[in-house]
Amino acid sequence: MGKQEQLVAASKKVLIENYGRLDFAAARGKNARLWNVDGEEFIDFFPGFGAGGIAGHCHPRIVEAITIQAETLLSHGNLFTSAPQVDLAERITAHGFGGKVFYCQSGAEANEAALKLVRLAARGGERKADGPYKIISFHNCFHGRTMGALSITPPSFQTGFEPMLPGGQQVDFGDLAAVQSAIDEQTAGVFIEAIQVEGGLNVGSVAFLQGLRKLCDERGVLLVVDEVWTSPARTGKMFAINHYGIEPDAITLGKAIGGGLPVAAMVAHPKWADVLGPGTHGSTMGGNPICAAAGAAAMTLIEDENLCQRAATLGETVRTRLNDAELSCVTDTRGRGLLVGMELDESVAARDVMMTCMDRGLILCIAKNNVVRIAPPLTIEEDLLARGVDILIDVLKQQYS
Ligand SMILES: Cc1ncc(COP(=O)(O)O)c(C=O)c1O
Q1: Which of 36, 152, 241, 385 is 20 to 30 A (C-alpha) from 133?
Q2: Does 255 participate in catalysis according to the annotation?
Q3: Is 227 close to ligand 1, i.e. is its CB under 6 Å away?
Q4: Domain residue extents for the chain
Q5: Is-contact 143 226, C-beta < 8 A?
Q6: Do the beta carbons of residue 72 and residue 63 sit within 8 Å?
């Protein structure tokens, strides 16, 4: 039995099978390369399920920031602050709409914080027992697995865990008239991803997001943009909202914002920055100094290495190569920056493509059942990116075209 086989077998005895894990045991990584415990090398187009999205695995500057911080201050309670928390929050707020940051550990928790912000803001900032509570979100969205976030995520994820929070309602992504008719006096907020990632890499139009901003303003409803997948830098700008010219009332961040460590955040617009006052919300580990230091190092890397521009350029290259390959099983190639989705026709199961690519040494992921998702680290070497795309094209040509 190889080491991987042993470890996978051991994992099945002690780890809950909620993920449907693949038979793969990761040992070490370097930028966009990942090795399993048997020493086999893979090109990683999906590091850390998005968490390694900026600089892949073990970037020396992130490792250095973590090491220095670990030797200085490992943790502190949130009645105190520390330099890394402030440093990361300054970098985040410099690129969006200003505002203030609440730290937590996961995208779902960031959305939980936004749900509380939205309810409290809709009640004039007062902790009243009732008031507007309804939330509109969109078919094919994904906002997380905790009960609040789940309540605004499609019913297919909710089955078996009902009842949900009351007032969750979904309408078609892109249908402004549907949002308009769904809003009533009990509506507190609208949650949206500018690009629905888990839901199939559906890119929202500028007209739709701008229309939504205008509608929410007119109806006194808060607009929250979930940027857990789309930021920082992934789409070619620091935040996806920078493509749309809108200022939401809050954005939620997760995955790559911690440079690979567990950092997530809810950023409240200056208008609402003081709504969550003392005692309204909290997270013991939120803004842990090591995690915040890793996030700040990743943000510095984005600035120093101009990774927004790199994401835009490399993403264009990938899309062009996929289009030029004229693959008959591909019905659409879309995305923004280095977040690329390739929709396959009904005869091809995206999961089979993913598994075949893995056998050939390329790790990628799927979205829904029919979209191949490509999201390599923004620091990936160009030749490695090209090799990964070669494998994908070859697999699709040989087996599915
Ligand atoms: C857009 C979006 N929001 C929220 C989440 C939940 O993030 P987490 O898994 O860190 O709770 C995800 C996870 O994939 C996501 O894609």
Answers
A1: 241
A2: yes
A3: no
A4: 62-304
A5: yes
A6: no
Counting Cβ atoms within 10 Å, is residue 163 exposed (0-12), middle (13-18) or buried (19+)?
exposed
With bands split at pLDDT 50, 70 and 90, how would you rate the model's confidence at 84? very high
Contacts of 343 (CB under 8 A, 6+ apart): 200, 201, 330, 331, 332, 333, 334, 370, 371
Beta strands in 173-270 (DSSP E): 187-192, 195-196, 202-203, 222-226, 250-253, 264-268
Residue 400 near residue 353 (C-beta atoms within 8 A): yes
Residue 156: burial class (beta carbons within 10 Å; 0-12, 13-18, 19+): exposed
Beta carbons within 10 angstroms of residue 35's beta carbon: 16
Q: Tell me which of 103, 224, 229, 257 to substitute to probe ligand 1's pocket, judged by most ligand atoms within 8 Å of the beta carbon.
A: 229
Q: Say whether 3 sits in a helix, a strand or coil.
A: helix
Q: Whose CA is nearest to atom 3 of ligand 1?
A: 143
Element housing 238 (H / E): none
DSSP bridge partners of 57 = 31
pTM of the model: 0.98
* Domain 62-304, second-level architecture: 3-Layer(aba) Sandwich (3.40)
Report the separation in Å between the CA atom of 142 and the middle of ligand 1, taken as the mean of its atom positions: 7
H helices of 53-168, in order, are: 60-70, 83-95, 107-122, 147-151, 155-158
228-246 per-position pLDDT tens digit: 999 999 999 999 999 999 9
Active site residue 80: no
Q: How far apart are the first and last CA of the chain?
A: 36
Give nearest CA residue, ligand 1 atom 16: 229
Helices 307-324 and 382-400: crossing angle in degrees, nearest 10, is 30
Helix, strand or coil, per DSSP, at residue 57: strand
| pLDDT (tens digit per residue) in 160-196 | 999 999 999 999 999 999 999 999 999 999 999 999 9
As given in the structure block, the two tokens for residue 37 are: 């415990």
